[in-house]
Design brief:
Helix content is about 80%, strand content about 0%. It has about 160 residues and is mostly helical. It is elongated.
Length: about 160
């Protein structure tokens, strides 16, 4: 999924066919990032102890910096690290929202359009199986494309309203 404001046919099919797996993966990533955010002090402290660059910064010009300078350097690193984690968490939450919106748009399709997308992407059935249920391949394909287009148009409409 490239650009968060755009939605492609590939994005829609990926979301419909892997919705649960994607959400579980994103939730796990959020949990991990949340723990990292909370443990930022400990992680930065460990990194500083191992980093030769910190000794150079502390002894700039051969004079030891005061504890205040060391503390300020540590705080800057901690804040920067936590901001990076926060940005990653926001991106993941946006991806999760995207998945939920696409699924809601799918649920708003006509029952026949839902059935086609469900058979193809969620149940992963072959066209041959669906054809046996009384629809031609061209009808199935036409309905599939129309349903995906409706989802994309709804996404675009809702995202334009937010700008």
């Amino acid at each position: 999924m490239e650009n968060m404001n755009q939605l492609t046919e590939k994005d829609v099919t990926e979301i419909l066919s892997q919705r649960e797996e994607l959400l579980v993966g994103y939730r796990k990533r959020l949990e991990m990032l949340s723990r990292e955010y909370e443990d930022a002090d400990e992680l930065i402290g460990m990194l500083q102890m191992r980093s030769p660059g910190v000794e150079n910064e502390i002894q700039a010009g051969g004079v030891n910096k005061g504890l205040d300078d060391i503390y300020l350097m540590y705080e800057r690193q901690r804040k920067k690290y936590q901001e990076e984690i926060h940005q990653n968490m926001l991106q993941i939450m946006d991806l999760m929202d995207r998945i939920k919106h696409v699924y809601l748009y799918y649920l708003q399709l006509t029952p026949k359009e839902q059935a086609i997308l469900k058979a193809i992407y969620i149940e992963k059935r072959q066209y041959k199986e669906i054809i046996k249920e009384g629809m031609s391949e061209s009808s199935i394909n036409r309905m599939r494309k129309r349903a995906i287009k409706k989802i994309i148009q709804r996404w675009e409409k809702d995202n334009q309203a937010e700008r």
